[in-house]
Amino acid sequence: MDVIEFVERSIGTWRSQRSGHNLAFSHFEEVRSTIDIVSLPTTAPEVIELCKSCGTEIANAVSPFQMSWKGESDWDENEILEGSCILIPIPDQSEPNKGKLLRSQGYAETIAAVSEYRITEDNTFILHTTYDRAAAEEKIWFATPNLRFRVSLIKTSDGNGVLTASFSSEIRSLSMAEKSLVESQKQETSS
Description:
This protein has helices at residues 3-10, 45-53, 176-190; strands at residues 12-22, 27-39, 65-73, 80-91, 98-103, 113-119, 125-130, 134-144, 147-156, 162-172. It is α+β, with helices and mostly antiparallel strands. It has a single domain, classed as Calycin beta-barrel core domain (Lipocalin), CATH 2.40.128.20. A hairpin with a 4-residue loop joins strand 1 and strand 2.
């Protein structure tokens, strides 16, 4: 799998359940959210602007997308967790399973970030991001086309200590037409 296929497989609406451990506060948190991932054209003004701000040629960008999320945490029941960011993969020309991921908003700090990604032989997408005060590592893989898992670590800036660790299971929300298609495919394979 290359990054284009990874993004294509990620497009859609996902229901996510994340369990997080904040080691600094010895706290466990459960977050339920909806994540929307939509494809963007390379001609979109926000895509062009993010490439410019990161000093990257738009010609090197592939499969830009926007990710939006809205969720609730059991830590603070009154807080609504929501946000949105633009993400742009920039594959390495010599190694197509590696590259950079431009992000209008980072995971550990809410500032623009440039991450390094690679896709392993077992199709796991691994993302490393270094911030001013922390470092983040995410791993995302698909169990089925409509079920994916994500593991995230936030580490100290030197990478030696872990501040938070989380595991998410994400299930794609299917439209009625998609549900009918999946059901008919199941019936075909069982007969």
